[in-house]
Specification:
Blueprint: H1 16-39, H2 46-53, H3 57-63, H4 67-88, H5 96-112, H6 115-127, H7 131-147, H8 156-177, H9 183-198
Helix pairs in contact: 1-2, 1-6, 2-3, 4-5, 4-6, 4-7, 5-9, 6-8, 7-8, 8-9
Length: about 210
Amino acid sequence: MVTTPATSDGPAPGTALARSQAARRRRVLDAALRLAERGGFDAVQMRDVATEANVALGTVYRYFTSKERLLLEAMVEEIEALAARLEARPPVGATPAARVVEVLSRGTASLQRHPEVTGAMVRAFGAADEADVVRRVGEIMTGIITGVMHDGPPTPRDLAVARTLQQVWLSALIGWVGGVDDPSRVVTDLETATQLLLGDGEVPAG
């Protein structure tokens, strides 16, 4: 679970107060996801989140300054969960391109199982004025992508490839959640971009 960074005036980690606050924050996140599942981005209103989570409205704002930040924090959790699954079951492709495609395909499949939630997260990503959490999403994704390319630290080129693939992924997701493209197009676009950047120049038809 993603936790709020500790502050000097916050409760000490591991105390009953800290656990209580973490549990309330968890309820707020879960409530937002349930609302998004039922009605997408527009269904996630802070007052409704508070009601769904059975907490005061002020409690919601204590942990999340806006619904965009709330949805982006949920996105961070989704990507961290992907990283944990990849650690438990690493990609098996023989080449960097094959491993990156497998990683991105698995992440896409997870997101497509909950289209309304994914749509809400993507809209929040495009609309939010929350540079720190947007940066955190990018850092986690960069670590995931570069981590399967090769052993050792990433090179400047690896980082550039990872950033480019993230932009392709976001654009493809926008096309899907907006109804422009069907779900398979997301994976096709990722395969094409990965092959052009890391592969032998052969790209999938479509």
